[in-house]
Amino acid sequence: MHAFQLIGPPFARSHPPRPPDGETLMPRGTDFPANPNPSQEITGQSLTVIGVSLVGTFLAGLLVANAAMPVFLAPIAAGYGWSHAEIGAAVTFLFVGSGLGAPLIGPVVDKYGPRRVLLPLTLVSGLTLSSFSVIGASLPLFYAAHFILGMATPGAVAYSKLISTWFFRRRGIALTALGAGAFTASVAIPPLAHLLMSRFEWQNAYLVFGLAELLIALPLLFIFFRERPVSRSSSGIESNEVHPDGAPAIRILQAIRGKTYWLVVGAQLTGMFAYFGFGTHAIGIMTERGLDPTTATLGMSVYAAGGLLAQIATGILLDRFDTPRVIAPFAILSVISLAALFVSRGELPVIAALLFFGIGCGGQVSMTSYFTSRYFGVRNFSTIYGSLLPVLQLLSAPAAIFVGAIFDRTGSYTPALAMLEVSLLASALLFLLLEPYPYPVRDTPAEPDQRS
Questions:
Q1: Distance of CA 339 to CAs 151, 360, 367, 424, 433, Å?
Q2: Quick one: which of 72, 267, 391, 435 is 20 to 30 A from 5 by CA?
Q3: 421 to each of 213, 338, 395, how far by Cα in Å?
Q4: Is the pTM above the cut of 0.85?
Q5: pLDDT digits (tens, 9 = 90+) for 221-240
Q6: Which residues contact 12 (CB under 8 A, 6 or more apart)?
């Protein structure tokens, strides 16, 4: 990722089609145009941007490598003689690379725009993913490729930034659509990886995924991934996204010094800690409560379906109600449903608790990008969001280790569920403490400039 000739100046400037008369591409220094009318946001261009973003997210190297690892792990071990622990450590390099890359990519995206950063990094990602087919039995190269792949996948930062500039009144549902697409990809890639491996061997399966990113995602992004054209009045570019007192957009140091930044971190981190800690051990937790492995696998599908539904519902509610506290009911539902798992035994009660737990967690942990845009604005979105991601990723990652350690020590998942319950309670409380957005959705359109 740090091939500065690819992501730093001088970029090879692309030349998108000229915007219609009276419009111009939104400058990097503005937050959002004076366009709070929801009907004006749903256009062919805006929907196309979401569509190609979904394709790019689905084929992103980091997501593919992570989702396919459980499928490829055993054949890689058999082919190269590596232990499962050695191979699994590659996922750590993948997410360490992602965590370190996000705060470095963020300021570059804010300065040069999502398009000019995303295109070269998609190229690097596709080439790196393809390289798994030829690097051979070198564990250091295997780790290095995963690290580079993590750093070269700026999806959450770049895609969220661009979508936030295209949508204002419908930003919640637009961002949750992107998250739902990534979630769907994580479910669809393992069976696809298994099919490719059965046909072409695992090395060539990696090559197919890499070529798909290079030959499908990259051309679509090059053609259709465009920054938003906005109307220019005689007074210049308008912006709705300012404080009520007209203060400029918040910078990274201002954000970090404020309590809102840490409330968002705390609310999302404690929710993600429980979400990831539970998800890794979900099959074991269900079998401990009387489910056979087949039914437990079905329970995982129900849990995932609940999370997917919740993401869509959350986006609609955030667009309808201009307050972060719409997340609180989801947080409370996750607390109640996890408590139900303490006492549930048998298929129907456990499956029902899993469904509601999936709904609660899905709505609770999926909106970091939305909160970033609403609390800190779009102008420095990628910088601030990029600073949040490594904190959330690195501090929530040990959850699965803690749950496993508690089980190894006690022989039961019940004490670990109690720990996760405390984490969820903390998340619900922190959501209730969040203040109103300084960048709210205005109820009335901005008055047009009448000056000649």
A1: 38, 12, 24, 11, 23
A2: 391
A3: 40, 7, 17
A4: no
A5: 999 888 776 544 333 333 44
A6: none
